[in-house]
Design a protein that fits this description.
This protein is of the alpha/beta class and 266 residues long. The protein contains 10 helices and 10 strands. The protein has one domain (14-262): Aldolase class I (TIM Barrel, Alpha-Beta Barrel). The protein has an 8-stranded parallel beta barrel with strand order 1-2-5-6-7-8-9-10, surrounded by 6 helices.
């Protein structure tokens, strides 16, 4: 490992996603863009009850970036500011990056935790290339969280695991409920079709949920009632459960923590 991350395995029960790849300060003035802003938000969210953070970096124009140098600076700063917080980087493409770019980022940084969208990574890639990458990551000790956008993606994931392209040990999945930009807000009932598709090794995998729109809290509570983990924050939603605009990512984390306590969800 790089020594700049915390050498933590596994995923936390609550992970905050404070920035994402698409929103900016025009969407919310408290959305953290710069490295100091992300670090400060990490500290506030950790204090509010998030054990992990899913991070994106932005270039000088505020655009989503897979720049290795920026990631290394952010990881180094987080390791000092919140040494007990699990940090997960992203390889999200957003139409700017190829699977080769994504793999290069992971190889250059060797992070403890990374999220990779299955449907982005497999585009025009041979089974041999994919097998080499995913098995290298597993051997290196990198925990990959596989982002699955639809129940059909769960079926696709099962096929890659069954064929040995993606290792079956230590699988972590992320079920994405709803769609970005208000196209379709999530609902708690959206989770069931994902869970119904799990078979074999997929059925034994750890899983988390992120949810677009104002019903984010309800969706995450449903996930955590049924054995899942939660990713919450401005990447997916800017609103509290009552429809008001959240003041910060830490407010979103605090609302979820309070709701868990109120509903006695262990």
């Amino acid at each position: 490992m790089t020594g700049e991350t915390q050498n933590m395995s596994g995923l936390p029960r609550i992970m905050v996603a404070p920035t994402g790849a698409r929103r900016g300060v025009a969407d919310h003035p408290a959305l953290p863009i710069t490295i100091p802003q992300i670090v400060a938000e990490a500290q506030a969210c950790f204090a509010a009850g998030a054990q992990g953070i899913h991070v994106h970096v932005r270039d000088r124009d505020g655009q989503h970036s897979l720049d290795v140098g920026l990631y290394k600076k952010l990881l180094a700063a987080l390791s000092v500011a919140v040494p007990d917080m699990i940090v997960q980087i992203t390889t999200e493409a957003v139409g700017r990056y190829t699977p080769e770019d994504q793999r290069a980022l992971v190889r250059d940084i060797c992070p403890d935790q990374v999220s990779i969208a299955l449907r982005e990574m497999i585009v025009d890639q041979s089974d041999e290339v994919l097998t080499a990458f995913y098995h290298w990551a597993a051997k290196t000790g990198i925990s990959v969280q596989h982002i699955l956008y639809t129940p059909q993606d769960v079926q696709m994931m099962e096929g890659y695991v069954a064929r040995g392209i993606i290792p079956s040990e230590g699988l972590e999945l992320m079920f994405v409920l709803g769609e970005y930009g208000g196209v379709r807000d999530s609902r708690p009932g959206d989770l069931a079709p994902y869970l119904d598709q799990r078979r074999g090794a997929i059925g034994q995998a750890g899983w988390s949920v992120c949810a677009f729109g104002r019903f984010e809290t309800d969706c995450l509570l449903q996930a955590m009632r049924t054995g899942g983990k939660a990713r919450i924050g401005f990447e997916n939603n800017l609103l509290n459960a009552d429809g008001s605009v959240a003041l910060s990512n830490a407010d979103r984390v605090a609302e979820l923590v309070q709701a868990l306590a109120a509903k006695e969800i262990a």
